[in-house]
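re: ur question from earlier - yeah i can do the single chain one, its not a big deal. heres the input i used so u can compare w yours
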Amino acid sequence: MTDKKELSAWIFSGIFGFLTGVFLVFGYQLEKLDHIDLSDRNAMLIMLMIMVVVTFDTRHVFRGYDLAVNEGKKLFGLVHIDNKLVEKEAGRRDYLINYLVMNILCLPVLISEFPGFFVYDAREELDEVLTRTFTTHHPLFHVLLLGTVIALIHKLTGSWNLGIVTYLILQMLVINGIFAYAVTYMQRRGIGRKQRILWVIFYGAFPTIVMYTLCSCKDGLFSALLLLITVLLTELCRDTEGFLKDRGKTALFVIASALMPLFRHNGFYAYLVFVPFALVHFRKKLKSILPAMLILPVVLYLVISNLLTLALKPSGTHHQEMLTVPIMQLARVYSYEGDTIDPSDNEIIESYIPKEDLMKYTPRLSDLVKVNFNNALYEQNKKDFFGVWYRLFLQHPLSYLNAWLLTSYGYCYPPAAFNTYKGNTVYTFTYEDSSYFGYETEPPGERTVLIPPIDTLYRYLSLGPFYKDAPVLYLLFAPGLLVLIYMFVFAYRLSKKRIHQILPFLPMILTFSTVLLGPTYLIRYVLYLWLCLPLIFITGGKE
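and the output i got, formated as tokens:
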């Protein structure tokens, strides 16, 4: 048995070491060269060295952590690990204190950036409500929620700014309510006063989180609901019987799981894949309420989505959102190796993607290439599209790999610069150094800066050369570091076969997997990596 445990520990240490080497070396090449270079022997040697060193270091840390947790020894003789969290009482008063403090921490930013960050398709979504012309490009539930509140307040007051700030305050109250629930749950699990203060400040003041708490885009609410699902699944895995007997918690899980995909469609696919895994894991509870609790959100989502579609009659079928990767692969080969393409294949490509758009190919952003994709032709004839895609794949596999990695590597390479919109002009500025966050207030809103130092800070973090000026501090703001942390923790738990400590994070993991096939790499698509981070500190230890 000991030999099997040792082998398992080495296997998962090796997997973590291998992936870390790949992420760091390929990420560096993609950042600097816009492609991976397998012929660079020095780079391949460095990658191999990283893999070996990280594998042995990881196994050493795993072993030291086991000794610290199981035998009370200090980790490497330096740090005492106390994972024996004692359940504590944490009630409504604790929740209200956490909730109040988080809202207070957010208010200076909201006041400074009045009426808030109205950005990322906000104008388009509002216009859909004002003109009663809806499309399938944006989630209808979010469009109605945002547009109705802003339009109603504008009608009552004549001020667009009041409409925007009203919506963002309501959103802030909901999101911070979820954050407070998470911290209060961690209190019940036994975190101390210092950790409680740390996580309250983290949720209420860490800039990356506050940006989206006070931003009109759907990602803030989506990520908060994903956090809520993760907390509830943590409770379910820890005390399955108690959770299933609590009708309030089961109802909250159903509501959160049904609402989450209404803000981002990829959340539905992630949850749909999660359900079978959960049913297998809880197979001894199939005669309880659990199967209904897991499946009902799928039914509710489909019902609500179809009702909204029937009521609003949105136009357009945007297949390009699902075809981002193959579209970019075809565009890269067309742009860089067009002289190798058969003329008949060229014609097929141009019939689906206009030539003028193919000529706009940029490695890290698909928006300009896919914007005029011929959806009507694709619906009539998918065979030709995938036929030419397959033929060119056989001829240019490395180009296809580069095309995909260049729109996703930023999530896994910690020092990656988030400047995919560089050169793009929006309503109030042109992206230059960074496009970490949209920052602006789109019309019909109008930004009024009331606390200049805070505005300067958030503008610098969003658009400035922060990643160049403070590369080490920047890592805390980069998803790549968080991905490595999650991978490290999950590798340890898998080596111990503690699936119940990973299952709560599975919806998040599956959602993250979907963005790897997305149009580009942006912080807003992976906000949940920050939001769910505190939970890994209460779901480990000796069990």
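Strands lie at 74-75, 79-80, 113-114, 448-449. not sure if urs matches, ping me
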